Amino acid sequence: EVVLTQSPGTLSLSPGERATLSCRASQSLSSSFLAWYQQKRGQAPRLLLYAASTRATGVPDRFSGSGSGTDFTLTITRLEPEDCAVYYCQQHDTSPRTFGQGTKVEIK
Amino acid sequence: QVHLLQSGAEVKRPGSSVKVSCKAFGDSFSSYTYSWVRQAPGQGFEWMGEIVPIFGTVKYAQKFQGRVTITADESTRTAYMELGSLRSEDTAVLFCARGMNLDSWGQGTLVTVSS
Questions:
Q1: Rg of chain B's alpha carbons, rounded to an integer?
Q2: Which residue, B23, B39, B36, is CA-closest to B75?
Q3: Residue B36's CB: how many other CB atoms inside 10 A?
Q4: Where are the beta strands (DSSP E) in chain B?
């Protein structure tokens, strides 16, 4: 199965700063099948981006995604306190669908 | 847009089984894929399987093969996931999610396995 490795494990930044989250796959993926999710404490995940870079409905434009092959990035520009959450990447290019272990974003 | 409503928390004994439901409100039901994903306490996500109601096709993660059964009832717009031979390591929150991109999620169902 495809292993997704996210880094860093935790990111601690101030409001207004830029967050860069990495997701590396153990084998090359079609970018069409790479998604990012946000999970706040005690809540279900929320789809942020699909096809690596397409924002889901209602997602602010400070969230953007890029990448191809084995390396994908989620960027959050101008961090806001409400962005405090764990962010997960997920692939459904090959079965089984797999998730990264998550990056926790803390707001100072 | 769709709202997915899952059944309530369950406490089960080791060796028993649990069946969790996921009812869809709002959008078309049958033509979408419904996945089941679990999250153990403090952990990440593990995909268990999926169903496409209109075709009746089901796919399971190899890890759960033989222990999990995913079904759907188009008349009630509800997907189900049954997990058998429960052990303590199965204690987790189970989520249903719709679509290939998992664009909508249920609220989660906590399944606790304890003697």
A1: 13
A2: B23
A3: 26
A4: 3-6, 10-12, 18-25, 34-39, 45-52, 57-60, 68-73, 78-83, 92-98, 104-105, 109-113
Tell me the shortest Cα–Cα distance from A66 to chain B, in angstroms: 16
Q: Which of A35, A56, A88 sits opposite B44 (nearest CB)?
A: A88
Picking from B50, B59, B102, the nearest residue to A35 by CB comes out as B102
Say if CB A21 and CB A102 are below 8 A apart. no
Work out how many CB contacts closer than 8 A connect A with B: 47
Interface of B with A (CB under 8 A): 1, 35, 37, 44-47, 50, 59, 61-62, 95, 97, 100-108
- Per-residue pLDDT tens digits for A52-69: 999 999 999 999 999 999
In sequence order, what are the residues at sequence separation of 6 or more whose Cβ sits closer than 8 angstroms to the Cβ of residue B85? B15, B17, B67
Whether A31 shows a pLDDT value over 90: the answer reads no
pLDDT of residue B27: 80
Q: What is the pLDDT of residues B20-79, one digit of tens each?
A: 999 999 888 999 999 999 999 989 999 999 999 999 999 999 999 999 999 999 999 999
